[in-house]
């Protein structure tokens, strides 16, 4: 179901969490709310879920104004950052909770819970308690619990934030695939631009309670609307008011007079990618990103003086 | 080292009590505890204690809830006042209760020398137990759990019944156990306001003291043993419930 947020503002005391925020999420889309902490992204998610009331503005789900309706009537599945498991219930009872609240027959509940546990690959763990599960398993249980009631919308607050790097990478991939399978409109909150780029079809970049830009990952990367988006999404060199992507800096094999002189301060090998830290004649420091092959061909080494070509820098009107 | 410490403080007194109560043989023991006055005193203590801890379970939890979840002026003062029954010597509590709810009650409530006064005194001295055991658990309760339940379609009452109370249950149970143990042993706050009328308002502990005064140590020891066993039984039952409940929560 499509979600529309219109002109939502929210304050907590003196702190402005959201200021006149509007977003539209298409039916079935997978959207990321991306921003640093304090940008208002979690507040926006909680307002969509009905866990927080906006001071002004509207929330519309499936063309229905739900601004005044409580969380329990919104048909929204919410996955909390720390999963919020019901610790005194088994995995089965956790997942069954929404259905048992709706007084569905026992048989139906059992069947549905089994189906969901298979979907999130927790089959066989139905009798365990949350204290006996790992972080990744808890996360998937929380997801199954949210999906059990067939929500119109699935909302995830920093879904991978509390997991270690490897599990996180695995779950990202899995969430993408799951979304392809069940196609429920999904919004997730993250502060990790790589995660947003990898998982989402649409990214909404937020900062200080406002929306900086919304669009496809590629669009944001290639045509950032402003300084903030430019520097938040993807690596960046800042030269005064101008911005340059490190992979746009060209290191020349031979000085043909078109380049600028630069001193190699450090060469960092990160596998396929090599990071070259450079100092320009005027003392400014930048870094360039080259591939392993390029680095080998150029025979880069510390202390070397070489010639680089800077692309036309991007400047944003402030 | 610890063994000696506990032996001196706990084991030896209990052993001495048991020895004393059995010194006249089992028939003497039975005679003492089947004395109608003793039976009435034990019954009064157990029944009133049971009622008092039930009230404590409900109101103690409510008080803890308000202290944790609500904001109001003077909250800190109310919070500090909860410990008053701990801080006050119980005989002083008795004097205060008698002055307030006795014959010359300034607010027109006179319960002195009635069974209600036994309950009132016990409620006063056991007030902190449930509040203080529920409060920290409530403070640490993850609000997201209640929000999760709400987003899954649960109304406020369902959230309370299926999420909040089961999580608080272990704390409520241990508060109740402590209240009960305290209530059946309470003496100081009872002696003044209840009037210690045999067969009416005389509690077990007061009966025991009376028997000691009459140099009938066997009767005092026998009733003590019964109260001790009742306390142990209740603690064991509640402990069992506690383990069942808290197995997966903590």
Please characterize this protein's 3D structure.
The complex is a heterodimer of chains A (318) and B (250). In chain A, 29% of the residues lie in helices and 32% in strands. Chain A contains nine helices and 18 strands. Chain A is elongated, with a radius of gyration of 24 Å. The model of chain A has no long low-confidence stretch (mean pLDDT 91). Helix content of chain B is 80%, strand content 0%. Chain B is built from twelve helices and no strands. In chain B, α9 (156-185) runs antiparallel to α12 (217-246). Classes of the chains: A alpha+beta (318), B mainly alpha (250). At the A-B interface, β6, α2 and α4 of A face α8 and α9 of B.
Topology record:
The complex is a heterodimer of chains A (318) and B (250).
Chain A: E1 3-12, E2 15-25, E3 30-34, H1 41-49, E4 56-61, E5 64-65, E6 76-79, H2 91-101, H3 106-119, H4 135-147, E7 153-157, H5 165-182, E8 185-190, H6 193-199, E9 202-207, E10 210-215, H7 217-222, H8 227-232, E11 237-239, E12 242-244, E13 250-252, E14 260-270, E15 273-279, E16 285-291, H9 292-298, E17 305-309, E18 314-315
Parallel strand pairs in A: 3-8, 3-9, 6-7, 7-8
Antiparallel strand pairs in A: 1-2, 1-4, 4-5, 9-10, 11-12, 12-18, 13-17, 14-15, 14-17, 15-16
Helix pairs in contact in A: 2-3, 2-4, 3-4
Chain B: H1 2-22, H2 25-33, H3 36-69, H4 75-81, H5 84-87, H6 90-101, H7 115-140, H8 143-151, H9 156-185, H10 188-194, H11 204-213, H12 217-246
Helix pairs in contact in B: 1-12, 2-12, 3-7, 3-9, 3-11, 6-7, 6-10, 7-9, 7-10, 8-9, 9-12, 11-12
Task: Report the oligomer.
Answer: heterodimer
H/E series of chain B, N to C?
HHHHHHHHHHHH
Radius of gyration of chain B from CA coordinates: 21 Å
CA-based shape of chain A: elongated
Q: What is the N-to-C order of secondary-structure elements of chain A (H for helix, E for strand)?
A: EEEHEEEHHHEHEHEEHHEEEEEEHEE
Strand fraction of chain B equals under 5%
